[in-house]
Amino acid sequence: MAGQTLYDKIWDAHLVDASAGGMALIYIDVHLTHEVTTPQAFEGLRQAGRSVRRPDLTLAVADHAIPTTDRNAPVEDAQAALQLETLAANTAEFGIEYYDGHDIRQGIVHVVGPEQGLTQPGMTIVCGDSHTSTHGAFGALAHGIGTSEVEHVLATQTLIARKAKNMRVTVNGALAPGITPKDMALAIIGKIGTAGGTGHVIEYSGAAVRALSMEGRMTLCNMTIEAGARAGLIAPDEITFAYLKGRPRAPKGAAWEAARAYWRGLASDDAAVFDRQIVMDAADIPPLVTWGTSPEDVAPITGAVPDPAQERDPDKARAMRRSLDYMDLQPGAKMTDIKIDRVFIGSCTNSRIEDLRAAAAIVKGHKVASHVGAMVVPGSGLIKAQAEEEGLDKIFLDAGFEWREAGCSMCLGMNPDRLAPGERCASTSNRNFEGRQGKGGRTHLMSPAMAAAAAIKGAFADVRECKLG
Amino acid sequence: MKKFTTLTGIAAPLPMVNVDTDKIIPAQFLKSIGREGLGEALFFDMRYLPDGSENPDFVLNKPAYRQAKILIAGDNFGCGSSREHAPWALADFGISCVIAPDFADIFYNNCFKNGILPIKIDKETWEKLLDDAVRGANAMITVDLEAQEIRGPDGGVATFDVDPFRKECLLNGWDDIDLTLQKSAAIDAFEKKRVTAWPWAAPVDG
Ligand code: SF4
To answer: Superfamily for B6-201?
Structure first.
């Protein structure tokens, strides 16, 4: 018998019914919800007179639209305020636990799940947000769903799904000094493209992946959706178990031992067959920065803006010209000559404590360039508190950064944190689409250390040339 | 859910690749708590100029395409976020069929839940349809889901593939939740097994 992949195993373990013409019904272990993609789902339940099947497997967090300024001040944007009130009312009505803006556990939903130990190996996890792929770092099958599916999961605790194909991305070797999991993620997307993983679940493997911390693994899996795959997976190991142990929602005592024994079996068999395989060498990955309006538009920091005239595919050349026009960049311009206006350190990709430490190590003792506005938005209230305990807030504030409350913030510009038209931003988030951080805003994706270096230099800078400390 | 059987209408050409969901509907319009009225904001940043007036160069602002019901879109259409506001905005505008070489997974899935038929088609047929669409109101296209056919203005017929389950749901306007609730016994049984097999996968507030 052919071996099974990790994805196959989790899928099989959650199969409720497989009769619906190639579609399957799979059980959902954890349903994460937030204020933006749920109001219509709860409304749908009410209209149909349905209830929430498992409120105990559902958690709600305010993150997308909530302001990152003083939490005691009223929310000025009336629509955002209504969304937050609606979530509070819906969760109260249906008996769902909710972390609101005054709860220290509040934060970006994909930061909160792992932090609370809710995210565990072998689980199925969904959320009305495409970066649910983040939770795959624990060996959980986790992906984004639309609002109709949110309603479906609320009502039935299951999802109608069709099994995806298996893809494996192996990154051998070791990352060079100064190179981060974000660079690894961007390198993979640069190689396979934003549709490279469409229809697949990607399992990451190889020595360079195994060497990543849980936080690094989350960054990598987070960006999987940017490669077109809904879910990314990393088989759980001792690093996973060490991260989980003692977290509020992790199993305890005998249950922990039983769980760990089960989790240890969660790996692809040697004989498992993948529909697609990509192999890369970590040593080849430089610090990367995006130049265009798609996450696949990456260039090494030592490189230059590419020239559409060199692109053979006419469709691609046209898309490149449009991107460069939007980004106001000239082909051939050196990356390190590109000046910036703003810096955003945050988002579910890079707002965890290790990210903030990496950025602070670059910032320490320096000042943000005078023409740059820079902000740090921790991924959760708990991360913010920990950073403050470590004195990181002081390093950022002394350098001239703003230090905000937790939330999605300028990752998608739903709350007042957004770019003005034409502003150029070094951002640790995950999408550089046109208008993503505000209409007319120009986003360049990079690692926290690179964004910190850019804040100090006022232009993109090679983090390997910045002295630490 | 709204049924989809056959649709005859004008097809608008939007051959741009990687049209992401932020382009389909930017984040500032995600603050509504309803599903209606989003058609105004469809393709907002491309459709309107900075002063708020319509961009006359954008396809859906051209007289020939204002009534378009079908969109001939580029590769990887709908990439990016899971926001269902994207299909809601398309439906509210009046577009209930999108034809592209390929789609992003979540968007593709979301369309079916909203009475929109997304059709994946080979590049050659796509180019022909794009060509038809460029002719505007003079080129009505018919999409027949039952027969899985696209009929062009010159009598040309192309066939397409669609998931049989999704097809049935669209043709009948079935609601996914109703279908699943018919399987409650299987869900009950799974939950029993879950408690013994994975007792640690405890409730969220356990
Ligand atoms: S931080 Fe950005 S990508 Fe992550 S959940 Fe929030 S909006 Fe989505």
So the answer is: Aconitase, domain 4 (3.20.19.10)
